[in-house]
Amino acid sequence: MGLLLADDEGVLVSARLPIDIPVMDEVDVESAAHALLVALEVRPGGHTLQDLSDPIRLGRILELPDGQRGDAIAITAQLGDASHGVVALHTTARPVVSTTLGQITMRETGDVQALTGSALSGLTVGAVARCWLPGAESSWAIDDLWVVELREIAASVAARIDRDTARALVVAGLSTDPPIDPADVLASEHDAPVRILGPEAGAARAGALSTPGSDAGATVVDLGGGTIDVIAPDGSDVVAAGAGEMLTEVVAGYLRLPRGAADWVKRGPCSRVEAPQILLAENGTRSFLDHPAPVDAVGLLVVPGPAGLLPFGAALAPAEWRALRVRSKERVLVDNVLRALRGSGQATQDIREIVLAGGVAADEELVGLLARRLEGCAVGRADVAGRLGHRYAVAYGLILMNDT
Description:
The chain has 404 residues and is of the alpha+beta class.
């Protein structure tokens, strides 16, 4: 026995009932009213579903034939680690629940595959020719594609998987639109001659290798908001989709944060406010604040933000978020850099030095993560001209190219 409500008054109604029964609110009660069977389960907060998350048990509860076991598996996957849920069995077919959120067409073979993170694992840059997402009238041609699944990231570190996480797929793509020559427009706007010096990759390499101590034979990796550019020692380059903005989307999607807040949260270690003046770090150490934190931040994770401590992640421990954050960077950035390195024709075991440039190179964990995957390779950040840091490799490179 249980009670389903259309509105969000579950707590209020449950408190006034004379008997102890599970109550679920914000339910499509009209759809449930026309179902043959309805399975309802409500567990205490922090505990996951036991009956609805077990496809064998769910199949028995709803009296499903063996041929529908796949449907039960798909339903339980979508529920993730939820603590409450409702599953209804209807006489007519309902929209199919699928973990596939789109399709891709391979460039060389023309094969069509489900759009998942695992489908792109091990492929090189440019392996996908077309992409289709649900709701789009047609597929579109692309130069490159990179995909990250929130469920895969969470599962890899045994983190909580809720219903939104289970369905979330973050996609970055490069279109096949030809580049636009801006010279004429810029010359007209500024009433000055404009000269195209060369590709951005060449400028990035020239600027990055102005870093004191860098080797002329180093590989340059320019990490931007939308792309990762790998420039080999011979000057050849590969542009891969997916970089800093993709990581922001992953963090925002998992934590349900605005993108502006996620951009700060993704950057490095967090702490938890144990008391107004006590912080618990990810490594278990405690420190004292010079000024008390806001009362509403107590019990939350925090990172330095643009206006002081930025709170987030009420349901996460510091160590849990560290595992998720690091794994997200590995999937979005490190795996993508390695994919681009393979696409540049370089054997990763032969690369002896990498110089990271671009805004994303500021990430304090990225150098270590990439170095651990490239054993024996010196990985460092650019310090353009010995004083400009890592952000201005392209701008300074253009100056060097102009002088020559």
